């Protein structure tokens, strides 16, 4: 229970969207260096610490929600991997109990919006509170779990560089409505990076960005001068992504559309929410998952 002894600890694990993604280099270990602008959506998984485990008992993970079926709740789940990594890094005493957790999976799995990474980051935020180890180096623990986990810790607009672990200030964004669309296919990230490499595409320089965009039109004009370098190889592997992008671009008042991360989820940007909601209604006619919300802008 939380410090008041009543409320369970809980956290949203928001979808991460890459507004652009440039592949800028390659490391000897095979990982790629990136320059990417990551934003967070209203659409989110939810993680709850339900009750402490009994002494000596392992913490259980229960998964529910629309995308929970088929997702393994065993030790390989990123939530439990995050718990184990934090316990070790922060040398949490073995007498400190595990927690039983519930993950409500609202985000499609292996879909380019970092759902698993967001869940792992939520587990680190919650357990560091529950275990009173907030001073642990969460950024390092996060980087050890996956390239997208560090940016998911703060869930705020940031620019990702290095292989994802170097977080730098991003432009101040205008208020902007965003639609997410996924055609129901799971896309393995390594396969897309491999296809990018085999395509022989050269590295792209980092983007040149201002300190702020005054309005959504200025932001979309600047995004048009960037790219998601993983989009062409992902479309080659999964042509339906091209259909999703065409349908998004066709929705009324769509200002900009692109694939996020390694796909298959694509996003559309709109000036206001009614237009985004109308787009969602038309995209769902294809049988695709589609959600509308604001780009999340925390106050800090
Ligand atoms: C594509 C992005 O989603 C953009 O935000 C991330 O770079 C991927 O983040 P992620 O899924 O957390 O990635 P990881 O789980 O660390 O890596 C999965 C696989 O993606 C490839 N990978 C990932 C990140 C990166 N900078 N270069 C890579 O080449 C590697 O083949 C790696 O084995
Ligand atoms: N809690 C979790 N949620 C989703 N996937 C998980 C989770 N734990 C482990 N995984 C595994 O991690 C893999 C990647 O899932 P995820 O949904 O994070 O992909 P993604 O959206 O493509 O991420 P990214 O944008 O970071 O590449 C899946 O193959 C899945 O089996």
From TrEMBL:
Residues 213-284 form the GHMP kinase C-terminal domain. It comes from the Bacteria. ATP binds at residues 108-118. Catalyzes the phosphorylation of the position 2 hydroxy group of 4-diphosphocytidyl-2C-methyl-D-erythritol. It holds the Pfam family GHMP_kinases_C. One of its GO terms (biological process) is terpenoid biosynthetic process. The lineage of its organism: Bacteria, Pseudomonadati, Pseudomonadota, Alphaproteobacteria, Acetobacterales. The active site is at 16, 148. GO terms for molecular function: 4-(cytidine 5'-diphospho)-2-C-methyl-D-erythritol kinase activity; ATP binding. This is 4-diphosphocytidyl-2-C-methyl-D-erythritol kinase. The gene is ispE.
């Amino acid at each position: 229970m939380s410090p008041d002894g009543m409320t369970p600890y809980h956290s949203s694990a928001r979808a991460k969207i890459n507004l652009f993604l440039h592949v800028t280099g390659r490391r000897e270990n095979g990982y790629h260096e990136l320059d990417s602008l990551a934003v967070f959506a209203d659409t989110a998984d939810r993680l709850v610490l339900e009750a402490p485990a009994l002494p000596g008992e392992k913490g259980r993970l229960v998964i529910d929600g629309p995308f929970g079926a088929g997702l393994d709740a065993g030790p390989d789940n990123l939530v439990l991997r995050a718990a184990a990594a934090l316990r070790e890094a922060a040398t949490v005493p073995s007498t400190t109990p595990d927690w039983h957790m519930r993950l409500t999976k609202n985000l499609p799995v292996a879909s380019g919006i970092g759902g698993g990474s967001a869940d792992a980051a939520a587990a680190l935020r919650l357990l560091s509170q529950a275990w009173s180890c907030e001073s642990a180096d969460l950024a390092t623990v996060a980087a050890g779990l996956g390239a997208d986990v560090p940016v998911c810790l703060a869930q705020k607009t940031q620019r990702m560089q290095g292989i994802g672990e170097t977080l730098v200030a991003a432009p101040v964004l205008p208020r902007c409505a965003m639609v997410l669309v996924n055609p129901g296919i799971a896309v393995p990230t390594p396969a897309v990076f491999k296809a990018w490499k085999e395509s022989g595409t050269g590295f792209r320089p980092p983007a040149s960005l201002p300190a702020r965009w005054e309005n959504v039109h200025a932001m979309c004009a600047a995004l048009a001068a960037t790219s998601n370098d993983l989009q062409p190889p992902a479309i080659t592997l999964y042509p339906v992504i091209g259909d999703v992008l065409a349908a998004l671009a066709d929705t009324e008042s769509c200002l900009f559309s692109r694939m996020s991360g390694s796909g298959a989820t694509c996003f559309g940007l709109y000036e206001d929410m009614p237009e985004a909601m109308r787009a969602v209604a038309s995209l769902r006619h294809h049988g695709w998952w589609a959600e509308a919300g604001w780009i999340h802008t925390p106050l800090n």
